[in-house]
Model the fold of this input.
Amino acid sequence: MTMLGIGALLASASLSQAQQTCAPRDQVIERLTSTYGETRQSIGLGQNNAMVEVFASTDTGTWTITVTTANGMTCLVASGQAFERLARTRAVPSKDA
Done:
């Protein structure tokens, strides 16, 4: 996969399963960091122990969601604009619970 392909993919607001583009994780992270100034903002586990990450730039507001499989391939799932970090608040249990 070429870096041009990753750049074109990041320009899209959302991607269908058929349009996903994947590359080795280190290449994807390098591109997100060097070109878009994005850093990892959150992480979690998805299906089949896939690592789901959100990368974003608090300076430009761009964001990207990636999924990395156990074999080290990272797929771009979605990207967009207007990323905003929310202030942490303590969850308040519902009175109905």
